[in-house]
């Protein structure tokens, strides 16, 4: 697949420039290197009261601009950086501005779960639109319906082209069952199961509150199998550890967790350190905290080639969905 090839991707069409906020500079640099370009010059600073200021330090008139920014921790700061950079680029007469979101923060608040609560994922979409962006490319959205919150094109970049080749190489010769940690993630897990030609199991999970989950039952068989738990993110690791406990009780020979976004907050480090799990696979959509780099069973796969190929296809007006 072109997204996985090494080396630069040559672009000869309309002029474009890649800019990056402060959320994930290493990933942004990798993407720029693959596309054979340099990151755009900009200055992000803060006033003494904490207000963010942005200055685009090169001519962007008539170019297609791509802003790479994960709205991860500190999510409010990173979100404001994204919005302010978008406004600065719009006022500098760019031809178009695409928000490239390796991680879309606030995506879990995608619907009203109780009376008098917000739909914050929609609010963030409105803010991105108001800032001047006219396209979004996001990796593994928590809920697919977020695409409908925008009135312009949204490219949903699935993480499966990154993780599936790794899983095939390492576990392809073994007896594998792909497991969804809840009913809501079934479609995501089904995609991976289909590519691995493996059966699918589903954890029946009951949630008692935010960041609190209790695995109750397993639909499917994992006895003697390599159980691969597939989710879009690991946050406090509460869902993951409950799933691990259940899979061990059901006789899984090995347990592997795959998640695109390593949010890793709260008790995540303690839980992952103590979890009876063989491997944890995540991507680089969110930079790892130093403490998590000490986890010996943690594997980090890069999304840079996939995101770079998505940008290349957008720029050339090629199909993005053909990647998946």
Structure in words:
The chain is α/β, with parallel strands linked by helices. The chain has 2 domains: 2-158 and 304-323, 3-Layer(aba) Sandwich (Rossmann fold); 160-301, Rossmann fold, CATH 3.40.50.2020. The chain contains 8 helices and 14 strands. Helix 1 packs across helix 8 and helix 4 (160-171) packs across helix 5 (186-196). The protein is globular.
Class of secondary structure makeup: alpha/beta
Main sheet strand line-up: 10-9-8-11-12-13-14
Number of individual domains: 2
Q: Which percent range fits the helix content?
A: 25-40%
- Alpha-carbon distance between the termini? 10 Å
Count of helical stretches = 8
CATH class term of the largest domain: Alpha Beta
CATH topology of the largest domain: Rossmann fold
Rg value: 20 Å
What's the mean pLDDT score?
A: 92
Q: Which strand-content bin applies to the residues?
A: 25-35%
Keywords:
324 residues, alpha/beta, Rossmann fold, 2 domains, seven-stranded mixed sheet, five-stranded parallel sheet, 8 helices, 14 strands, globular, disordered N terminus
Offer a concise description of the structure.
The chain has helices at 25-34, 75-91, 120-130, 160-171, 186-196, 238-249, 268-274, 304-315; strands at 16-20, 42-46, 52-56, 64-68, 96-101, 135-139, 154-157, 176-180, 200-209, 212-219, 226-234, 254-262, 279-283, 298-301. It has 324 residues and is α/β, with parallel strands linked by helices.
